[in-house]
Structure formats: C-alpha cells, structure tokens
Amino acid sequence: MNPYLAEFLGTLVLILLGDGVCACNALNKSKGQGAGWVAIIIGWGLAVMAGVFVAGPSSGAHLNPAVSLALALTGSLPWAMVPGYVAAQMLGAFCGAALVYAFYKDHYDATEDPDTKLGTFCTMPAIKNTWRNFFCEFVGTWLLVFCILMFATEGNVAGVSLGSSGAFPVTMLIMAIGVSLGGATGYAINPARDLGPRIAHAVLPIKGKRDSGWWYSWIPVAGPLAGAAFAAGMFLLIF
Prior knowledge:
By secondary structure, this protein is mainly α. It has helices spanning about 5-25, 35-60, 65-75, 80-105, 105-110, 115-120, 130-150, 165-180, 190-205, 220-239.
C-alpha cells in the first residue's frame, strides 16, 4: 500500500474508534452512555492497535505528526516524506470524526449540551491553565515518543519494530498514559487526533453546537510537537 494512503486509513480507523468510544460514552440515548473513563481509555488503546495494524506494514503506522517529527529528527524517516505523512494523518482524522458524526447523528440531535458534543471530537482541559495544559501535553507526548523509540531499540526486551508488530506494546502504553496522565487535558498527545476532528466539528452541521474551542486548539498541537522533539533529542543524546 502507498505509505500516505496507509497513514490516511490508519488514522481514520484510529479516530473512528477513538472518537467513537467518546460519543458512545457521552451522547444521550446511547447504549454505552456513562460507561466512564476506563471504557474510554480501553477504547482509545484498542483504536491505536487497530490503526497500527492497518498502516503498519506500509508506513510504519505513525498516525501522529509528533511521531513523524520524532522519527525524522532521529533519521528514521526522510524529511521529504514528513509533509505527506502529516497531510494524510490530518485528512484521516477529519474523515474519521465525520464518520463518527454520521454514525451517531441521531444521538447528537438528542444531546443538548454543546460541551458534551465538542468533547466527542477533540480535547479541552479539565481546568483552564494555559501553560500547565501545555506542560501536560508536552510530558504525555514526550513519554509516548520516548517509549516508542525505546521499544524499537536493538536489544530491548519488547523486541518490536515501529510497524504493526509494535501494536500491542503501544496499545498498553496509550492506556497507561490515559489512566495515569489523561485527567488534566484528555491526553491528545497527537496534533492530528485533536485538530482534524476539531475542524470537523467546526464545519459539520451539528445541531446546537458551540464554538470549536479555538482558543485552546494550539496547545494539543504545539505541546505534542515540542514533547516529541524533546524525546527525539533525548534519545539521540543517550544513544
């Protein structure tokens, strides 16, 4: 498969299942309403696993501009491929979120709270504190990227590559970050995961929606990119 198509499809699957579990948990009259944070964590972990299996053999399954940036910085991805990877990830995330809306359209119509609707697309902080929110996204993504780089290090007991064979360790890592560090900002740790669906929320004809939280939108983009760059630099310094 073309690697850009693989990134598009893998990210679409990631967001369809990830935003899907948020919608299932939050929207009125859903059979899964109120399932809770643990269900969301499990859903996002399995969403990552599914996306990695789709894209892994063809693109390495980055599914995340922060991961692509880190791999370019460490020499594992040619810089010329980065714009195509990021574009594919963004488009896949947008389309995945649009599919979630189409799937749960009746439930969006039955839900009155506009904040709940927005929360099924993208992240917002539990407590508004700009630099703390940035720090949380930075640390979460640093941990994600550094661990992924370590998973692929020769001799590591995990013994995995950055492709589909790494799906299970990365799934556990995503769940661990969510359970431990997700409470402050919703752990976007992925610019495409947050910005693509946020754009979808802005353009889709969602009944009774609010603004798309653009005042916050730069944090789940800049924080993860900065965290990924720091993780790559730390990895290069060590090895």
